[in-house]
Every structure is written in structure tokens, then in C-alpha cells.
Q: What sequence folds into this?
């Protein structure tokens, strides 16, 4: 047996991050994911830093190249009937269609679910919109970082007494993508048993509230929001990130701050922490000997701990604490992740040869399957890299027909059309 | 109509968030999930809260109720031979065994894939682990905070203006939820392969790697540019930040040029928007300190709802910084039926967050409230496994169940 989704083909009409993160999971499992890209409007993730070696180019963005590994790319200008026809012919060969156009766009293109079902009766279609396909705000637009605000996560995240914060990345996107991948796989599993496909309406907003379920339920119970409290936890202390020595190297003339995260669950663990920082008496000190006391004196406790961590490299602090049986981890930078022996031993990061930017490391697959091993099989596609190949090999266009498609502007950016 | 996973049988040995969330995703689409909890103690999520009136109660914890609706609950101590034998019987009847026991605990109780596969060769066994089942950190201690940190998510968040403040964790259990969601995806992939003839298999999921998979472009800055991504650096695009209005906060978001131009129109095109330092996305990002102050001043006099509506009318993706109460009151979410009322015999009737997606032919549905501790022992042990009342009594007396 090969990969779990071998033989499954996916038309990927999504862009930026949520949809691409969904189809990335399917590509990891061996599906043939075909990205349909607009020749005149390349995905904004192709036009975003970091560009390999700081040289701008559609095939050079780390953003695009990370989240589109193992997919193929065809450029189709869907405003031209011949290209739209090619898209329909493509869909006839596919099991799944994913799109994140605003509500109604697929219908206007003639690619609504009912139309697609005519082409392929057991098709599975997923729409990822910001607010879902129904309801009074169904035509509102949202981006991943806005979902962090909209979901309530932003209002809950922040330092005590300070403003609502974001979470450091556009969390709404991969969160919607991973939930969407689950929905599509469940629909595929169901189709395998019943022979029937279906339509899936995914709301990124609703997905963004899913990992806040207990907090929303808490509000429902008590009519009260938790207060923003930094990294602290009501049932654990100490619980936070503590400053260590700066990284040995500087970056662009500035030093890099390093931190270790420490989470102490109970009194026994606190006693081990106290011993490992050379201050075993803390464990019997009435100011710190119980959770209640530690919560009451948390500022002072954090100051004591910070004086110890400040003398150490973050890795050193992490190792000392883990060896002593205390839950701790460095606040890993991208460099730390790249250099992690643990992740290297698991083969998590993968570097494949890319025709334009060479070998670069990318995040790989966070799971391992014993019977149907998954793999990143190819780097992200170059812009339109597989256009001719897909038209010819999959859709049966003749060489002349492909030439004609190029000629009428169905496949290429407007400025590149010669005649 | 039945759910997409109707007929699928799942056994869950999960605590807190990761494995329970994975099993919840399956249960909500119709799978039968038997949740196995330790006798007397139960899932620690039962002690986490939030609780009504802040009074702890094993059957009223918001975290437990949310994550375990739709599941059947049994108690079992798999670490004694009699308990492990029952676990094997449960696994013999199941399609999936999902657990989050740490590797050392798996070794201790003898939970080994080959051993389970010998009983049920079509079983998918999913191990949701902090650092996976191999590598030098395999047995490290972990928590929600340290997993978010070790996956690289915490370092890139926090106040850009106050370098003395620590990196900032996202609220709640995001590492746990993401580990669970990725585990659910991997498990479904293995199940799909199973119906196509691959048989059963062992799936292992690393929560650290799940977190490291979602940090946007932070990792890539290193192999692509040799730069460490920090919370202090300039963003590729601005504005992309929350601002305070006169009655709350709003997230201001202009990723594409037309969105910025429309925002300028909403502001009645003040003179400063013509300045060359704000001419395009990269310029606005480079001159963000200046732009931020100008926007702050203008936005301070607006109302959240008014600005939200004006922006959306021009297809600019602003969003309010919602409070939890706003969500429960949202007319949009009401119209979509997002919140579902679940009546629990002890916790009572409450509105829970509902379907994150609508599978139109096989809908998401709540069929039962979260189980009380050991609620379905008789139903499963007698009805399903055929144990006699006497045997069940003995197992109870010996604290096996």
C-alpha cells in the first residue's frame, strides 16, 4: 500500500493560507492536488517576504513554498471561456474541489455545487469563507488575523492590565485549514462507504471559536470574561516565560533575547524546581509552599526565578530543569527549531530541490503512519509549472490545442501574451 | 440524517485537550466514542473548570463538558492486568483507539501497537504525544505552555514596544487543540487507507510539530534569509493591528491595496494619506510608527460597530475584537444556529459552541451530553462485552473499573 490518499485528486481554487493549509494535508497524504492559479493575480502568498536570499520573485516566497509543498500548479484565466471549460474538464477528473472565494463567486463562475455535481455526481466541494455561506454577514470578508479578534481569542490574550493582543501569526488560517481537512477526509470516508459526495460550508469564524469552547461555555455559565493575565495560569505557579542570557550571536547589530518557559503543576514539582535553582528552602517557605501562597506571591516568585534564569543560556536552563523533573522548554526561535537535535532525529524538517531556489528547509508532516507512510513528495510548484502537462496528460488536449490556449490568453499573464 | 462517521467505533484514552478534541471531532460527525477514564479520578479536565459560580464539581467543568459531549463514558484502570484485558476487548470491537498516554506510561502498561494489532488487525491506533514517540525529547515533561513555546509559537508574540516583557502565550489550550485537530486529520487519513485495503496501522502525532507547522512565515525567515523571526521586526504589511475606538477595540486589516484605498475613503481622505511615505504596503509597513499614531487618533473617535459596518460595506476585512458575550449575542451566529443548547443531567442546560462546518448531507449533530464518570459502565461492560453482573461487581470492588 502506498500513500493513504493515492488516487485522490483535488482541485485547489484557494489562496493565501487557510485553503492551502487544508489541501497541504491532503498532498501530504498522497492526493494529487492541483492548484488553479490566476495568471494575472498570483496568490498574495507568492508576493510576500521572506523571499529566498531577498530576491523578489513569484517562486521565491517562503510563505507560498511552505504551504504548497507537493502540489501541482496550473494557470487558468477563468474570465476566458476556454479556460473555464478546462477547469470544468479538470473537475471531472477530481474527487474534491476546495475554494475560498467570497460567498457567491463560485456560482457566478458557473462552478457552484449544483453545476459541479452535473460534471461529477459524487464530487465533494468545500467552501471556506470568513463567515459561512448563510446568515446576515455571509458576504462579509475576513482574513486570518482578523479571526483572532473576531473569535474572542484576542480579547483573552494579553498582559495583565494591558490591551488585547494578537497571537503572533494569522492563527485563523491554519486553524480553519486543519478543520477543513478533517471535514473533507470525513466526507471522503463517507463517500467510500455510501458512494455519495456532498457540499461542505465551512465558516472560518466558527472554526476559530472551536478552540475556545470552554471559555465561551464559562461565559455562558457565569456571564464573566477571564481577565487577560499574560502567561499565568490560575492553577499553576510559577507559570511563565523567564529571561535568559541573550543569544551568543547578534542579528543585524542587535542582540536576540532568549527565554525559557516553566510550568509548575504541583508542590512536588515546585520542590524540584526550588532544589534545581539552588534554593531548596523555597519549598518550605510559607510564601511559596502551596499553590495558593505561590499565586499570592507570584510577582516575587517570578523575580527569584528570573534572577536564576538570567545567568543561563535558555538551552542550559531547559536541560537542568528537565533533568530535575521540572516542566520547561526554551521559547524556541526559528534557528533553535532548525538546530533542534530532537526534530532532526525525527526528520521533521525537509529540504527538497527547488528548480529556482535550490534546497531550503521547510516544515514537514507532524504525524507518522506505520502502514501508509506520508511524505512531502515535491517542493511547492513554480507558478504555472504544470499547466501544459495537466492539459495534455490529464485532460487530453493536443499540442495544437495547448498552443491555441496560450494564444488566446487562457493560460498566461496579460502582459506576456504576444499576439 | 446520520453523520459522516456513523458506524465508526472509537475508543479514547484521553485527558485534558489533545486526544479528547480529536475524538470530539469524530463524535460530532456521528462516530461512537467510548471515553475511558481512570476510576474515581477521571479526566483532569473535570477539575479544570470553568465552573458555574466557580464551585468545582467533577460533572460541571466547562472544559470537560465541551470536549466530551457526544461520548459514552466508562471507567477503567488499564495499568493492571485485568484492566488491560478489558481495554483489549474494547479495542477488538473498535476501528480507532486514540490515546495521549506519554511514551513511558505506554511502556509501563504495555500499550504496544503490535500487541493490539494482533487482536484487531484493522484497528487504527493513534498516539498523540507531546514530542512524538522517538527522539531525545521523547520523555520530556510538557504542558500547554511549554509545547506552545517549543513549537516556536510563543517567541514571535508579545509587545513589540516593551522588550522587557516576556513573549506572550495565546490564551487557553491552543497547543492541545492543534495537536488534537492534526491527530484527527491523520487518523481520518489512516481510516480512509483502511477502507481501501491498507488494514490497520499505528499513527503517531507530535504536538510540538503540530505547533511548528502553523507559525506562518516565522520558520522560513531562517532558511530563506538567515534571519531570526522576532516579535520586534517590521511586518510585511500594515495596518494589521487592533485599535481602541470610543466603545471598544477593532482589528484594522488592510492586506491588499484596494482595501487600504477604501479605508482612506472611509476616513474622508485626510491630507496625510497623500504623503509619499504611505504610498504602498511596504512604505506603510516601513513607516508604521508614524502611521500608527495617525490612525490611532482617527479611530479613537469611532464606534466599533459603525466602523466595522462601513469597512465591510467596502469589502475591507475589519473585525471587532469580540468579547465572549458578543459571540453569544451575535445575530449572524444565531441565524446560522452556531450555538447549541445541551441539557446535561447535572450541569443543566447551557449553550455550547457548535458546528465549525456544515457537511450538508451528513450533518454535524449533538446526540448526547458529556458522560458523568463511569456513566456507561454497565451498558458497555455488560451490553457490549458481555460481562456478568458478578464480574462487573468484582471489577468495581478491585477498583479496575
A:
Amino acid at each position: 500500500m502506498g500513500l493513504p490518499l493515492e488516487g485522490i485528486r483535488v482541485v485547489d481554487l484557494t489562496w493565501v493560507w487557510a485553503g492551502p493549509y487544508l489541501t497541504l494535508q491532503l498532498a501530504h497524504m498522497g492526493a494529487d492536488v492541483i492548484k488553479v492559479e490566476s495568471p494575472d493575480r498570483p496568490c498574495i502568498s507568492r508576493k510576500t517576504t521572506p523571499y529566498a536570499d531577498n530576491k523578489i520573485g513569484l517562486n521565491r516566497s517562503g510563505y507560498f513554498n511552505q504551504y504548497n509543498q507537493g502540489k501541482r500548479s496550473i494557470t487558468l484565466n477563468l474570465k476566458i471561456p476556454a479556460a473555464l471549460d478546462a477547469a470544468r474538464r479538470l473537475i471531472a477528473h477530481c474527487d474534491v474541489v476546495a475554494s475560498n472565494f467570497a460567498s457567491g463567486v463560485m456560482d457566478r463562475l458557473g462552478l457552484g455545487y449544483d453545476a459541479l455535481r452535473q460534471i461529477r455526481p459524487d464530487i465533494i466541494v468545500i467552501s471556506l469563507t470568513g463567515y459561512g455561506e448563510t446568515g446576515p454577514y455571509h458576504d462579509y470578508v475576513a482574513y486570518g488575523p482578523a479571526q483572532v479578534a473576531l473569535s474572542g481569542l484576542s480579547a483573552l490574550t494579553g498582559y495583565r492590565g494591558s490591551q488585547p493582543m494578537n497571537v503572533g501569526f494569522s492563527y485563523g488560517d491554519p486553524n480553519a485549514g486543519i478543520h477543513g481537512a478533517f471535514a473533507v477526509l470525513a466526507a471522503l470516508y463517507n463517500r467510500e462507504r455510501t458512494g455519495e459526495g456532498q457540499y461542505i460550508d465551512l465558516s472560518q469564524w466558527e472554526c476559530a471559536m472551536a478552540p475556545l469552547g470552554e471559555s465561551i461555555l464559562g461565559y455562558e455559565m457565569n456571564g464573566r470574561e477571564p481577565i487577560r493575565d499574560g502567561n499565568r495560569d490560575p492553577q499553576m505557579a510559577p507559570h511563565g516565560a523567564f529571561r535568559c542570557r541573550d543569544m551568543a550571536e547578534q542579528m543585524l547589530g542587535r542582540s536576540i533575547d532568549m527565554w525559557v518557559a516553566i510550568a509548575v503543576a504541583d508542590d512536588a514539582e515546585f520542590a524540584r524546581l526550588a532544589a534545581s535553582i539552588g534554593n531548596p528552602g523555597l519549598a518550605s517557605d510559607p510564601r511559596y509552599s502551596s499553590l495558593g501562597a505561590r499565586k499570592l506571591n507570584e510577582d516575587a516568585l517570578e523575580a527569584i526565578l528570573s534572577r536564576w534564569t538570567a545567568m543561563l543560556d535558555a538551552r542550559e536552563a531547559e536541560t537542568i530543569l528537565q533533568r530535575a523533573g521540572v516542566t520547561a522548554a526554551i521559547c524556541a526561535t526559528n534557528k533553535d527549531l532548525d538546530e533542534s537535535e530532537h526534530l532532526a532525529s525525527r526528520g521533521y524538517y525537509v529540504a527538497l530541490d527547488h528548480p529556482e531556489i535550490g534546497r531550503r528547509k521547510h516544515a514537514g508532516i507532524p504525524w507518522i503512519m506505520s502502514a501508509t507512510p506520508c511524505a512531502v513528495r515535491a517542493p511547492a510548484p513554480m507558478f504555472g509549472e504544470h499547466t501544459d502537462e495537466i492539459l495534455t496528460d490529464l485532460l487530453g488536449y493536443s499540442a495544437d490545442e495547448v498552443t491555441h490556449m496560450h494564444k488566446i490568453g487562457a493560460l498566461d499573464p496579460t502582459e506576456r501574451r504576444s499576439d | 440524517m446520520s453523520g459522516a462517521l456513523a458506524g465508526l467505533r472509537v475508543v479514547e484514552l484521553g485527558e485534558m485537550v489533545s486526544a479528547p478534541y480529536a475524538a470530539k471531532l469524530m463524535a460530532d460527525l456521528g462516530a461512537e466514542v467510548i471515553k475511558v477514564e481512570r476510576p474515581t479520578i477521571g479526566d483532569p479536565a473535570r477539575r479544570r473548570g470553568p465552573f458555574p459560580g466557580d464551585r468545582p464539581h467533577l460533572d460541571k467543568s466547562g472544559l470537560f463538558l465541551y470536549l466530551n459531549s457526544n461520548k459514552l463514558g466508562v471507567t477503567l484502570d488499564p495499568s493492571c492486568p485485568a484492566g488491560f484485558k478489558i481495554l483489549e476487548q474494547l479495542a477488538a470491537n473498535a476501528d480507532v483507539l486514540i490515546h495521549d498516554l506519554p511514551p513511558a506510561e505506554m511502556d509501563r502498561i504495555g500499550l504496544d501497537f503490535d500487541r493490539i494489532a494482533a487482536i484487531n488487525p484493522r484497528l487504527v491506533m493513534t498516539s498523540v504525544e507531546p514530542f512524538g514517540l522517538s527522539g531525545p525529547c521523547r520523555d520530556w515533561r510538557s504542558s500547554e505552555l511549554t509545547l506552545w513555546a517549543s513549537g516556536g509559537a510563543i517567541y514571535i508574540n508579545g509587545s513589540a514596544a516593551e522588550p522587557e516583557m516576556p513573549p506572550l502565550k495565546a490564551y487557553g489550550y491552543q497547543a492541545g487543540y492543534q495537536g488534537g485537530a492534526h491527530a484527527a486529520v491523520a487518523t481520518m487519513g489512516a481510516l480512509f487507507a483502511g477502507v481501501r485495503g491498507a488494514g490497520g496501522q499505528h499513527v503517531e502525532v507530535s504536538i510540538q510539530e503540530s505547533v511548528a507547522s502553523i507559525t506562518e512565515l516565522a520558520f522560513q525567515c531562517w532558511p530563506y534569509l538567515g534571519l531570526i523571526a522576532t516579535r520586534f521586526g517590521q511586518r510585511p504589511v500594515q495596518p494589521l493591528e487592533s485599535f481602541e475606538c470610543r466603545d471598544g477595540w477593532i482589528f484594522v486589516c488592510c492586506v491588499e491595496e484596494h482595501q487600504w484605498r477604501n479605508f482612506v475613503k472611509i476616513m474622508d481622505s485626510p491630507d496625510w494619506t497623500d504623503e509619499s511615505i504611505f504610498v504602498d504596503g511596504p512604505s506603510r509597513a516601513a513607516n508604521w510608527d508614524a502611521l500608527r499614531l495617525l490612525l490611532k487618533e482617527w479611530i479613537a473617535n469611532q464606534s466599533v460597530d459603525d466602523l466595522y459596518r462601513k469597512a465591510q460595506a467596502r469589502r475591507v476585512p475589519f473585525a471587532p475584537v469580540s468579547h465572549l458575550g458578543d459571540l453569544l449575542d451575535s445575530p449572524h451566529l444565531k441565524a446560522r444556529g452556531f450555538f447549541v443548547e445541551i441539557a446535561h443531567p447535572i450541569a443543566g442546560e447551557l449553550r455550547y459552541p457548535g458546528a465549525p462546518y456544515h457537511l450538508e448531507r451528513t450533518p454535524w449533530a449533538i446526540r448526547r451530553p458529556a458522560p458523568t464518570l463511569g456513566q456507561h459502565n454497565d451498558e458497555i461492560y455488560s451490553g457490549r462485552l458481555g460481562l456478568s453482573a458478578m464480574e462487573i461487581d468484582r471489577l468495581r470492588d478491585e477498583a479496575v473499573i
